[in-house]
Amino acid sequence: MRIGIDLGGTKIEGIALDDNGRELLRQRIPTPRDYLGTVTAVTELVQFIEKETGLTGTVGMGIPGTISPATGLVKNANSTWLIGQPLTEALQDRLQREVRIANDANCFAVSEATDGAAKGAHVVFGVIIGTGVGGGICIDKKPLVGINAIGGEWGHNSLPWRRADEYPGHLCFCGHAGCIETFCSGTGFVRDHQQHGGQGDNGKDIIAQALNGDELAEQSLQRYEDRLARALSSVINIIDPDIIVLGGGMSNVERLYSAIPKLWNEYVFSDRVDTQLVQNRYGDSSGVRGAAWLWPNE
């Protein structure tokens, strides 16, 4: 049995999968907003899953950050109470077994590459587009972590081929201005629409306006599509993935899957682009499933 844990800012989700990927059990609990409370909650969740199933499992966990290869401590975490903490060591001590921890976007990519929308693909780039922009690279169903544990962090590069009206760009939480995340996140999409005189407090409303013929909303969506095409083109030029899988709230915009591949031809350094752009299979469940699949069939 494989146990996957998805550590979010407000909830912790646990799942148990059998060797064929069939779901045996799923449980959600609130996320304590302190380090020791989080360690205890994850430990108790694993113990609950094993008690309910009557089985002992491997444990994989996705977190909104990563483990520093240099120190073994958590870094780059949105859940700031985890930063600088020995999370892996603490959980291994509590559970008395190896625990594999990965960035949540890497878990998303692993999930979709293992038995999701990118099943069978050699190189997969998984993208989570919501409040922010996350990314994970998966090669033959294994995450590409990198020597600095930042593989796939495309959102904190500058938006490529920027137009004159895209300078200097908005300040990103990473400390730089004009990052892909500030333009291509759902938050960035809404902000851009409002700055151009549009109405709407969330992406879903603006998309609905565009589909109903609102000119400002349509223009905002076209700007967004072009920016996302440029951003993904830079990824294709570097890792040349078989498939790019979109997740997060903006992945539900159906027209992206036809519009963006037409636009990225202008920017990809190739005579043709065979990379596929697809929607995820498992939605919000992809991260927790990918955490479980950090223990592949070995």
Quick structural summary:
The protein has 298 residues and is an alpha/beta fold. The protein is built from nine helices and twelve strands.
What is the CATH T-level topology of the largest domain?
Nucleotidyltransferase, domain 5
Question: What is the string of SSEs from the N terminus onward?
Answer: EEEHEEEHEHEEEHHHHEHEH
Q: In CATH, what is the class of the largest domain?
A: Alpha Beta
Instruction: Please tally the β strands and state the result.
Output: 12
Percent of residues in beta strands? 15-25%
3D shape: globular
Keywords:
alpha/beta; 35% helix; Nucleotidyltransferase, domain 5; 2 domains; single chain; 5-stranded mixed beta sheet; 298 residues; 12 strands
Could you characterize what this model shows?
The chain is α/β, with parallel strands linked by helices and 298 residues long. The chain folds into 2 domains: 2-104, Nucleotidyltransferase, domain 5; 117-280, 2-Layer Sandwich (Nucleotidyltransferase, domain 5), CATH 3.30.420. It is built from 9 helices and 12 strands. The chain has helices spanning 35-53, 87-95, 104-115, 180-184, 186-195, 203-211, 215-239, 256-263, 286-292; strands spanning 2-7, 11-17, 23-30, 58-63, 66-67, 74-75, 99-103, 123-129, 133-139, 142-143, 243-247, 276-279. A 5-stranded mixed beta sheet has the order 3-2-1-4-7. It has a 5-stranded mixed beta sheet with strand order 10-9-8-11-12, sandwiched between helices.
